[in-house]
Every structure is written in C-alpha cells, then in structure tokens.
Write a structure and sequence with these properties.
The protein is mainly alpha-helical and 223 residues long. It contains eight helices and no strands. It has one domain.
C-alpha cells in the first residue's frame, strides 16, 4: 500500500520538479539569451505553466505598484482607474504580438509555433517582475534627489525585456539577425493593422446595434 502511494506521488513530484526547473530556466534565459531561448523550445526546457506564472507575476506586480510605489514616482487616481483596462494594457498587446509575429513568420519559413511564440515572449518578460518588485520597495526609501536612479533602473528593465523578446523570436524561428529585426518591425506594424481592423469591426457592430435599436423604437412608437 505504501509502495502504491509512492508510485502515485512520483508523477506529481516529477511534474512539480519539471515546473520548478522550467521556472528557474527563465533566469538562464536572462543571462544567456541565445542559448537559453534556443533550448527553451528546441530542447523543451520551457513549459506553459512557467510561462503563465511569469505572466501572472507581471500582472500582479503591475497592480502592486499602484498601491505600494511611492507617490514621488507614481500618482494614482483611484476613482478614474479601471483595473480590467489596466491589465488589458498588458494582455492585449501581448496577444497582438503573439498572433502577429506567428502569422507573419509562418508565411516566411519561421520555425516557431504559436504556443512557442507565446512561451518565449512570457519568458522574456521575466526581468520585469524580478526588477520592478524590489524597485517598488526601494521607491519608499529614496528622496526626490535620488529619483533618477529609480527611473533609470526601471527603464532598463523594460528595455532589457524588449531585447530578450527580439532575441527569443530569432532563436525560435531560426532567423538571422537582420531577418529577425525585419520581422520584429513587421510584427509591430501587423499589430497596428490588427488594431485598425478591430476598430473598424467594433465600429460596424456598434452602428448595427444602434440601427436596430432605433428601428425597434420606431416600431414601438408606431404600434
């Protein structure tokens, strides 16, 4: 009976160990981006569970920053804040980037699949929670004269995360440096195109709904 319980625990423990290793692997991707992002997908060192964890941590840190960052660096007007739109400011561009990059690279012999683009992008976001959390605490112990240090470090974390995204795309699609930069710019342009199409789509829907509402009111008035 004890042996049976041990056999049941082994798969769970193996999954847990794999999850921990894949989450720790994000640190290796930060310090060795070329090898790290290659192994992430080609050697299957990454997992969707770890990628989702990094994304959730990023969202949590963004919310925590609203509450715990010093007013010197961040002023929040809570009565005007919509938390869902605030989180969408991360999730919506992420979705556009993943879909746009995958769609374009698939047409030009990109090796990465949609899930791999998502996973690599989330792993590349790891510097944000790792840097922003201690910065959030640090902000409450600095003066106005020391604000430049906070601003520079915060900006560097965002820039480094962006660089990691570009490197990650090059590794999973197996593109050369120049081709990778070209498709990075093209992916950003594709994001703008998708936003434009979505705006037109929702505009048409709102006009259609308004038309049927006015038509219904007219019918009710005449009846």
């Amino acid at each position: 009976m004890i042996a049976a319980k041990q056999q049941e625990m082994t798969p769970r423990r193996a999954k847990w160990e794999k999850y921990k290793d894949s989450l720790k692997f994000s640190l290796y991707c930060m310090s060795h981006p070329l090898d790290g992002f290659w192994d992430l997908t080609h050697e299957k060192r990454g997992t969707y569970a770890a990628a989702n964890t990094i994304l959730v941590l990023t969202l949590i840190i963004r919310i925590m920053k609203l509450r715990y960052t010093s007013f010197i660096f961040l002023t929040v007007y809570w009565e005007e804040l919509n938390i869902f739109l605030y989180l969408a400011s991360v999730l919506f561009p992420l979705a556009l980037w993943v879909v746009g990059n995958w769609a374009l690279t698939t047409l030009f012999d990109g090796k990465g699949r949609l899930g791999q683009v998502y996973m690599a992008t989330c792993y590349a976001m790891a510097p944000y929670p790792l840097v922003q959390f201690p910065l959030m605490i640090f902000s409450n112990f600095v003066t106005v004269d020391e604000a430049e240090f906070y601003t520079v470090i915060s900006a560097l974390s965002l820039v480094y995360a962006a660089i990691l995204v570009v490197v990650a795309m090059g590794q999973i699609h197996e593109f050369s440096g120049g081709k990778n930069i070209l498709f990075t710019v093209a992916s950003l342009f594709a994001m703008l195109v998708m936003v434009f199409i979505l705006m037109i789509f929702f505009s048409m829907i709102s006009q259609g709904v308004a038309y049927f509402i006015s038509l219904g009111k007219e019918l009710m008035f005449r009846l």
